[in-house]
Request: fold
Amino acid sequence: MTYCVGIKLDAGLVFLSDSRTNAGLDQISTFRKMMVYEKPGDRFMVLLSAGNLSISQSVREILQVEKIDNGSPESPEPPITIWNATSMFDAVRVLGAAVRRVYDQDGPSLKQAGVDFNASMIFGGQIAGEGMRLFLMYSAGNFIEATRETCYFQVGESKYGKPVLDRMITPHTPLDEAAKCALVSMDSTLKSNLSVGLPLDLLVYQADSLQTEQIVCIDEHNPYFAMIRGAWGKKLRQVFESIEDPQWDGQAAAHPLMTASDRYEPMRKITHPGEKII
Reply:
């Protein structure tokens, strides 16, 4: 399995992925799930993938050469690729075409073998002349785009790392703070799910730069991530212990657990002395 997250902010983009794939408890491998497509000064795009590894790898290879028609057959314009697309919307359409091409090639054989066509991807970046955009691609080749209300996407084992993102991430979040939040989200996932594992790939992109040097591979020896893993658990324990325990005496407690209410009443059976129980 895997866990990947992409975050779109006013200040830029943050991408984070793990690298574990497994086909059983005794067959665990490491494969990078982040692919960067960069032409400095012109375009910068990042692809994160989850699901069936053979499908994801095929899509990544085809994406670099995949083309879609640009208008009618009589149009003098060349076919659209990720390298000449004038918008991220056109670029993600090329990605969708690549996913469907792999499905047409491998889908029937996978189905015959009892294997689902399972692949989901996060694709985002910026092309000169327009703003940053972030998309979530589904197995059918269709996609949705991030908005200010929903400014991040996850693929893979998303449930463990989602709560901290929901509480912390807004479009106004600074890039470094968002990167820290993504790493905490990943640490929560690593703690609770063995199918997600190190090393991690972290990339931070500043808006309108059309290139980045802020990309790092994080392993178990990385001092910053080691600090996060230790500090996050310690701080959580401190916050947990600072919250008062449940108090059943409503008159004596500042925040009583039990209060008078006619709406909710436990269902229970009370037996009395001498009552025959059948």
